[in-house]
Amino acid sequence: MNALALVVLMGFSASPLVDASALIPGLRVDARYATPHNLLGRSVSGETRCLLLPEAAQALKRAQSLVARQGFTLLAWDCYRPPEVQQLLWEKQPTPGLVANPKRGSNHSRGVAIDLTLARADGAPLEMPTDFDDLSPRAARDATSGVSPAARANRETLKRAMLAAGFTSIRREWWHFDLAGALGYPVLGGERR
After folding, report:
1. Are residues 177 and 114 in contact, defined by beta-carbon separation less than 8 angstroms?
2. Comparing C-alpha atoms, which of 19, 8, 188, 13 is closest to residue 105?
3. Residue 173 designated active-site
4. What's the confidence (pLDDT) of residue 193?
5. What does the alpha-carbon distance between residue 182 and residue 184 come to, in Å, rounded to a whole number?
6. Regions in the chain scoring below 50 on pLDDT
């Protein structure tokens, strides 16, 4: 299937989302919401691809190119997130600033946000301040307390590449990046509650 072709998703007749892995050589995916390794502690999605709007996928491709020049690759944990999954996260952690309120819509549900880490070329994750979906103070994008120099350097390499590629970062999660102008995109799929 051509990466720019429309992808059929559960609950959609047709979607503008593309499979970023098909578009980006070297991109690795460990879809955490299809596993128990997430905030909910259980699988809540059968999706194992990194689905994004084409604009976000192109920006991610630029970031992948930047880290590849340094001998690294990107490892995606969460890309498009259906509103139903966002609702489950909100029910578990209804704290604005930690989890997006599904009534407002998550940028993941717009197809323009990605949670990811930096890995070696073979896909082995590099040391970072925390694991995915960690709500501790060490998860902040600029945290230093309890964060090793290696983890700080790896986090900075990831952040520089993502910002240079056209993403923005958020204060509380070193792994989360939004395509610039994310709030201008509509929520895709499902009904907002």
Report:
1. yes
2. 188
3. yes
4. 34
5. 5
6. 1-13, 191-193
Catalytic residue among 47, 55, 173, 191: 173
What is the phi/psi pair of residue 24, to 5°? -120, 105
Provide the domain limits for residue 174.
18-184
pTM: 0.90
Q: What CA–CA distances, in Å, run from 130 to 17, 107, 139, 146, 151?
A: 29, 22, 6, 10, 9
Q: What is the CATH number of the domain that holds 146?
A: 3.30.1380.10
Structure-derived torsion over alpha carbons of residues 158, 17, 81, 77, reported in degrees to the nearest 10: -30
- Whether the Cβ atoms of residue 152 and residue 144 lie closer than 8 Å to each other: yes
Closest to 114 measured CA to CA, from 21, 5, 14: 21
Phi, psi values for residue 63, rounded to 5°? -65, -40
Q: How many domains does the chain have?
A: 1
pLDDT digits (tens, 9 = 90+) for 47-95: 999 999 999 999 999 999 999 999 999 999 999 999 999 999 999 999 9
Q: In whole angstroms, what is the distance from residue 105 CA to residue 98 CA?
A: 13
User: Is residue 70 assigned to a domain?
Assistant: yes
